[in-house]
Amino acid sequence: MTTTATDHPPAPPADGALHKAVLRRKRVPYWLLLPGVLWLLVFFAAPLVYQASTSVQTGSLEEGFKVTWHFATYWNALTEYYPQFLRSVAYSATATALCLLLGYPLAYLIAFRAGRWRHVLMVLVIAPFFTSFLIRTLAWKTILSDGGPVVRALDALHVLAVTDALGVTEGHRVLATPLAVVCGLTYNFLPFMILPLYTSLERIDSRLHEAAGDLYARPLTTFRKVTLPLSMPGVVAGTLLTFIPATGDYINAELLGSTDQKMIGNVIQSQFLRVLDYPTAAALSFLLMAVILAMVTVYIRKSGTEELV
Amino acid sequence: MTAFATTGSNGTDVRLTGISKAYGDVTAVHPLDLSVPAGSFFALLGASGCGKTTTLRMIAGLEEPTTGTVELGGRDVTALPPYKRPVNTVFQSYALFPHLDIYENVAFGLRRRGVKSVRKQVDEMLDLVQLGDYARRKPQQLSGGQQQRVAVARALINHPDVLLLDEPLGALDLKLRRQMQLELKRIQTEVGITFVHVTHDQEEAMTMADTVAVMNAGRVEQMGAPAELYETPRTTFVANFLGTSNLITADVVGTASDDVLLRVSDTKLTLPGTRCTADARVGGKLLVGIRPEKITLTHADDAGTIPDGRNRLTGRIAQSSFIGVSTQYLVDSPAAPGLSVYEQNIERDARLVPGADVVLHWNPDHGFGLDAAQSIDAGTDVVELGTDAREAGT
Amino acid sequence: MALLNRLARGLRRNLVVIAGLATLAFLMLPNVVVTVFSFNKPNGRFNYQWQHFSTDAWTHPCGVADLCGSLSLSLWIALWATVGATLLGTAIAFALARYRFRARSSAGTLVFLPMAMPEVVMAASLATLFLNMGVSFGFWTILIAHITFCLSFVVTAVKARVMSMDPRLEQAAQDLYATPWQTFRKVTLPIAAPGIVAGALLSFALSFDDFIITNFNAGSTVTFPMYVWGSAQRGTPVQINVIGTAMFAIAVLCVLVGQLVGRRPRRS
């Protein structure tokens, strides 16, 4: 092999071949990345840039939109739709907390107490995914239907009286109230909480539980001092995986709520697909991202995950 | 160290009565009685899967016995959960809490029992294990040997009646293991607590323990002081598992005063009756055991120089390997193939090379007799397995 | 009294089991309802109230206009989205897991971002691009959108698997005279295969079940989730429940068979 490459200083033949091979090897990751990254740049990054420019455009469908650096769209969107923003965060945070509360025992059960039933339980947790989530969400309409067994039972136990007083249900119904929407959100995102929780719990060496017991910790203390701190990465991951999509969700509010439970996702959807006010929809999208980013940053700071293992 | 001297605790005795453990159809530990004297260093020795760790865990309360009782200092603790038992465990691979620093790991037990000021005790304990400077490090920032010392400190700080050690040195390299063996022995002598130590390493058990119980397949094969086990094994398993033994099948041809007279391929051997644990009936068979280092090799040309009264076997050297402190020979004899002989390198006979005809001879008092009905190989192959399967636990 | 005490103690000890099983019931309840209501014969357009038992919907699963058409469209899109996302994603995963290079962390961030963003934002921005480009919405825009959001999940699944692989295996293969390509074919790829399969299955499920992104990028094309969404306004045919139940049964069956097949070699 001869060294004819013009961009390299002349080198002995053997070295030149080696040099080329090394160069070729260095290029491998870039060739592997190229198609996928190009795809993401064109269909993910570029749209975000477009979206950003759209958010500062003005105009109408008929005359077309022009970039006029009209930042007032953001202010208008915020002042007009802040109730939906607040509602989204409140519903989503409540649903996330409920997911943690409901999901932790199940993840713990699968990780430590299930024995040979572990696989069966895992399949059962994932199984609902196999039915379209829209169909399952519609099923909650049946479960929570007015005068149905669930609502009648809650009524008889005076639960609805309490929730009514708290303002999360209305009269003798659950459907078309905040409770129904939060219930739907909790249900839909529960597996996203359970899976990371399970992963981090399963990783805990069972001898650490034994060691804690051996060092005079009662079961509850063992949980508080050993299990819970060690499962924090799972708690944080599960919280993010639940909170972020739940905040932008509009399906549960649409199917299980009424106009009084509209979330910010509903507004973006209708602005984009029905009102065709693209600048407002774009501005709302970026505001939503900003809200989520702020909440997530505060949360990660507070939970202090960087100190964890 | 004074912290312990002043408590005046001399440990507590452990008594296991008819204790057994079965998992479904599999019996991990057959009903066994075991009594560990207060203040002793007791070792449970066996290959992986022999039930030694299960036995230890039943003492700790981490495993519920299928039958039998556990008594600590005369108190029945069988029904107590681990957090109510006055024992502490040094776990295999230590089980240090990864989210807590060294200080908090060591303080864990004290805090759980509501001790308010732990500072002085923890500092003292960390000094004892020479880790005072590492208090605020996380366990994963420490070396294996340091982690091991934290595990010991974390258990000892609670002044347990009994300290249980589950293969505590298994994860360390040979040199560090030797060093920690002496260290643990020193600590045990100083604090006077009863130590129950589980290991698959026969050398470790013999170096450290006052009493060793050799376990095999869920049963205690033999229990006693290390020297006693080594000199007078009662089963082929113990003979092979503890060091190396040459076992020769011989016919019992008679008795003379206290000696048993034996014959193996036209050669006569004698064995003191007191060193024979099996029933020696004339016409029956017996396994004669002799440790390799008790045999002397003499070149066949010098056979006349061997004193009378010694057992002799003829053979031919098949292999020799120079170890440094000794030379190990493999000798094929008509009586038995592949006999091991260790000769100290004091005056080396240059004629002792593979192919040379030799006479093996030993003092009859150094032999031991075993029941010939047992497998002659029991315990020979498990030593390697024990080392490999360390992680698998028992 | 003793019995009551024992009961109380048993309850306390198994509290976590009881709570966990209650959560599981909460998770399974809608599936039960979907199955039961697939045998309903509702009065009127909506299948929310139990009326009469009937197997009509099961005997005529395609008895409603457009339903089975939307189903097959969804299956096709899911299939192609899986192929596209798996090819692109696996290549990225190998690059990120196996090589050290300058753009590595920025590429990692680019891949991570789509997963850390609410779907509605991604959906709206992609639709904005298509609108500005004058692309007409339909099969291709849905497919592009699906590949885009499935890609990151494939990368995550494959990368985790490749990262956990012992690099000495590849060195051992090269030591035993395997060329880089042979090493990849005979060692790396077989070991990474479970990760790739997991990523592909995840893509398929995500694409098949996606609503939000499709909602923004479908135009007048109707996928199965879009059909269900529309039916929530127009009236829900029982056939939706039939398809939901059948999908659930088939998937669970596949998992069970997979478990049985996967277990057999280990036993012998």
UniProtKB/TrEMBL annotation, chain C:
Residues 71-261 form the ABC transmembrane type-1 domain. The chain crosses the membrane at residues 15-39, 75-97, 109-131, 137-158, 187-208, 238-262. The keyword Disulfide bond does not apply. One of its GO terms (cellular component) is plasma membrane. It is found in: Cell membrane. Keywords: Cell membrane, Membrane, Transmembrane, Transmembrane helix, Transport. Pfam families: BPD_transp_1. It comes from the Bacteria. It is a multi-pass membrane protein. One of its GO terms (biological process) is transmembrane transport. Belongs to the binding-protein-dependent transport system permease family. CysTW subfamily. This is ABC transporter permease. It comes from Streptomyces luteoverticillatus.
